[in-house]
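Lab meeting notes turned into a lecture example. A postdoc, R.K., suggested we walk through two folding results consecutively so the class can see how the record format repeats. The first protein's sequence and structure tokens come next.
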Amino acid sequence: MSMMSVKDLETVQSTLSEAGLAYQLELKEGKIQIVGPSDIVSSEIGGIFSRLLGNWVYPGRLGRVFDSAGGFIVSDRNLTAPDVSFVRASRLKQSVRYFAELVPDLVVEIKSQNDRIAALKQKIENFLELGAQVGILIDPDELTVTVYRASGEPIVLGEEDILTVAELFPGWELPIREIWTPVFDDEQE
């Protein structure tokens, strides 16, 4: 089987869209992968994390925060979309109406119900090898957040800990308990 290019993926995506099919596709090592939707817990955590990060990033004009639909061309055979990502303003002064042709500075993967931790960890490690500064793996099942950097051991944070990413967001502190989905009681209707 021949290797697919980003242009090939765009053709497939266009054909699917014209047929009324809205699949999210990624390209890994020249092979197209269909990415299924997240469960709603993982989706909600992604929204919460994006909002809390964006509340720090945008007022300071530090860069751009993207959701799971934002595609990054990281090599001629790889087009991928982290669940949440960040690119410093100095590296992406203006968003383009295309995929970003760079590696994000921060990548965040959120374990969905059917995801395997090993695969998510590998995806983060690949981003780090390509130049990402920080990778974060959020596991709603274990209520942990693991922070990866190109050098050093991963740091596992629990519900009572505070996430900091000083190399990208000096002064930003995110209590881990704030990213978990809330439980509403009957009185909040």
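The second example is placed directly after the first for contrast:
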Amino acid sequence: MSAETPAQSTGTFDRLRLRFRAWRGHRPFWAGLFTMLGGLPIAYFPYATFKLGTMSIAMATTAGAGSLIIGVLLVTLGLTMWFQYATRIFAGVAAIVLSLVSLVVSNIGGFILGFVFALVGGALAVSWVPGAPPQPQPLPEGGTDEGGAPLAADPDTAILRPVTDEPGAPYRAPESGHRATPDGTPEAAWAADNVNGGSRVG
């Protein structure tokens, strides 16, 4: 792939996936999904008929209408959590109450399956809160950024001084009041050598 090759545009599936991900992140998505999944078995099992060979098994009860109403209400509450998430607390509490009522009315809560899904969905709806938008962090005092590293000095105002206090420093400033030689030795040292018979070259 050369530098002149244009970048491939994002496919339709990727764009739809990103849009769905953004939509899902701003609402109690999983709470609504579990609540609706809980309503389906509660409404279905009282009217279902299973066949084992030539024998038919019907699980309809006298409370079949109540099971249908509970299942439809749970599905409606799940959709409310998705599209009217401002009322998520009311919808979550109502889902928990209906799941408990289904234990008595609808075949032990849709054979425990619908009861568990509706109970988990209601609890997730009550506990869900929208995320706060990110706020810009203020710059801490001391002239450092978020990472704690010092800011670079202004080259127009920075004053660089030699290090003379540390042992083994490569540079030593000449003594004040004496004229230094090119090798950094003070003039007074040469004078002391001349007294003792030494000579100075250069």
